[in-house]
Amino acid sequence: MKRSKIRNLLEVDAPEEIVLIKGWIKTKRDSKGFSFIEVNDGSCLKNMQIIADKSLENYEDLNSLSTGAAVSVMGHLAKSQGKGQKWEIHAHRIDIIGIADHSYPLQKKRHSDEFLRTIAHLRPRTNKYGALFRIRSELSYVIHEFFRNKGFVYIHSPIITALDCEGAGELFKITTLDLKDVRQKNGEIDYTNDFFGRGANLTVSGQLSAEMFALALGDVYTFGPTFRAENSNTRRHAAEFWMVEPEMSFCDLKADMDLAEEMLKYLTAHIMEKCRDDIGLFAEFVDKNLISTLENIIESNYIRLSYEKAVHILKQSESKFEYKLNFGEDLKSEHEQYITEHHFKKPVFIYDYPKDIKPFYMRLNDDGKTVAAMDLLVPRIGEIIGGSQREERLDVLESRMDEIGLSKKNYWWYLESRMFGSVPHSGFGLGFERLLMLLTGITNIRDVIPFPRTPNSIEF
């Protein structure tokens, strides 16, 4: 008999003769002559109540079942007599698939996020994390749907690279060498005999690869894991995270911001509609203002503000910031929070940043001091998207690389793309986990990743 998902059974209009479900016991309560068993199969937030009568052939064996045990249930789907549930299953047969040891740590109570991080292999069985990872799955799907509907081509950019796109400092090294045996007198590593014949790292961005394909296929995007080897233990940083990175040819900074705004609204609206029950859990137990925050994301016309004007607003503010902001410095979290949550109370694009705080590939503006860069800031999260128009002029790009001491030899192919039919093109990166934090009200990035990778944390 074909197994049914609880999610689908809860949506049927009329009871079915016989159904089969498989899942894990959430609770079990025995009464005189029968038992009430709540089973969840991970397909939705709600459990299915099972009525197990003493007439079952193995009824006595069910006494050994406890929270966490896996069972297969075949029975009649009937209208429930209890409140808060439409259907229940009157069991004809219950097979015990896997018992749960008495040490099973998840009980019918709320556990702290800190505790659940120590049992990351079990936390998807909780209501909160089951809901979170269903949302994560749906969000992955709709990202591809959004770009497909707009005619973008999906590109698989390399995870291993020899280049540093973002200037993210020390990168994760990839090597087959025993480094203690190959260090030269000057302290440098000789990679001549390494697998790739030169130093290699885990990528911090798929952007440079996406640019090459945008200059051939038009509009493209990448969606995959990226890595930053920063020794950071903040709530917003992880060593391994996912990025969505579209790249568009014949596109300026304005069109880049247009796409970013359209995409964020589309993704948010989709998740609010398709994951209503799961979002409802977070709105009730995690962030009471979640629904109004997400409605603001969908309904607002996003502010577009130059970096210079943003600095002026912050300087004129009566708020006492921990960090004073001077022109030429990057915004801190408290500055982003003030602009989005207090001054404008909606998402804000900040654009035309000083060139000295942005990477080499961003297009130099006519003033020679700023670049055509943009960040999208949203309430509660801060920066969620960062992007720019890319420098398509070969001479300007070479000058920028010389200015910051970047080897043109290593980027020969990137420079060559500006020699053969170069065109204006733009793109951005969306932090996938930060978007999940926005959509759920969760405040720590460790809690939106199945198995987070942070300093001193790689147990799972």
SSE diagram, text form:
Blueprint: H1 6-9, E1 19-31, E2 34-40, E3 48-53, E4 70-79, E5 87-98, H2 113-117, H3 127-149, E6 153-154, E7 160-161, E8 173-174, E9 200-202, H4 207-217, E10 220-227, E11 240-249, H5 253-274, H6 276-285, H7 290-299, E12 303-306, H8 307-316, H9 333-343, E13 348-354, E14 370-378, E15 382-389, H10 394-404, H11 412-416, E16 425-431, H12 432-440
Parallel strand pairs: 3-5, 6-10, 12-13
Antiparallel strand pairs: 1-2, 1-4, 2-3, 4-5, 7-9, 8-9, 10-11, 11-16, 13-14, 14-15, 15-16
Q: What are the defining features of this structure?
A:
460 residues, alpha+beta, eight-stranded mixed beta sheet, five-stranded mixed beta barrel, 28% helix
Please report the distance between the alpha carbons of the first and last residues: 36 Å
Radius of gyration: 27 Å
Q: Percentage of helical residues? A: 25-40%
CATH evolutionary superfamily of the largest domain: Bira Bifunctional Protein, Domain 2
Total DSSP helices? 12
Q: Tell me what the CATH architecture of the largest domain is.
A: 2-Layer Sandwich
- Mean of all residue-level pLDDT scores: 92
Strand order of the main beta sheet, please? 6-10-11-16-15-14-13-12
Describe the biggest sheet? Answer: 8 strands, mixed
Quickly name the level 1 CATH class of the largest domain: Alpha Beta
The number of E-state strands comes to 16
* Unreliably modeled segments: none
Task: Look up the CATH topology of the largest domain.
Answer: BirA Bifunctional Protein, domain 2
Quote the beta fraction.
15-25%
Q: Please provide the ordered H/E string of secondary-structure elements.
A: HEEEEEHHEEEEHEEHHHEHHEEEHHEH
Query: How many domains is the backbone divided into?
Result: 2
| Derived structural class | alpha+beta
Shape: elongated
